[in-house]
Amino acid sequence: MRLILVRHGQTFSNVNHALDTAEPGAELTELGRSQAAALVDTFGEHEIDRLVTSHLVRTQQTAAPLAQSLGVAPLVDPRIREVVAGDLEMANDFRSITTYITTLAKWMTGELSARMPGAETGHEVLERFDAAVSAVQGELDGGTAMFVSHGAIIRMWSAVRAANAPDGWGVENVLGNTDSVVLTHEQGNWRVETWQGIDMPRHSVVAGVSDRDGRL
After folding, report:
1. What angle do CA 6, 104, 148 make, to 5 degrees?
2. pLDDT-derived band of residue 46, with 50, 70 and 90 as boundaries?
3. Does CATH place domain 2-199 in 3.10.20.580?
4. Where exactly are the structural domains of the chain?
5. pLDDT tens digits for 110-131?
């Protein structure tokens, strides 16, 4: 199976650097809608057997132009929602953002029992995203699925589950709005094919890139 994970387009909360993870979440900005429309050029020629979004409005708005182009109806799965900010929800101060990022970094370097203040542990985040992936795998028995999801959870799940992603890799390699991670499942393991369009060696790491579009 091939899995394409796409981060949503720019939102008003991204512009304000707010930790926006609750329902329904901020809508896309004008730039975000342009980014969503550009996904048609990027993925419109791909054979995508299943298109899935989270239940937060920004992922559904991002997927809409591509869904129309492909002639498919996106499925909504809350299990691929963003890492819940809990007590940090909608905060945009330095301490709160640092706490959120530090917790993610702990998960991506093996401390999965760490808990986001007032919210999930790394184990719980992986469990729900794994369940969503497994459900699609069972339905497709191969083929290609695209999840339009969120930056932190895509980075965390890909970094932890991909066999060719060393510990800490996802900490440095952040995702901009509508950037993607493409993975394949082979011989029982997930491997990253590309990260932001850059080929990922089977046993090495892509150089870090900056977080140019906000975090969630």
Report:
1. 15
2. confident
3. no
4. 2-199
5. 999 999 999 999 999 999 999 9
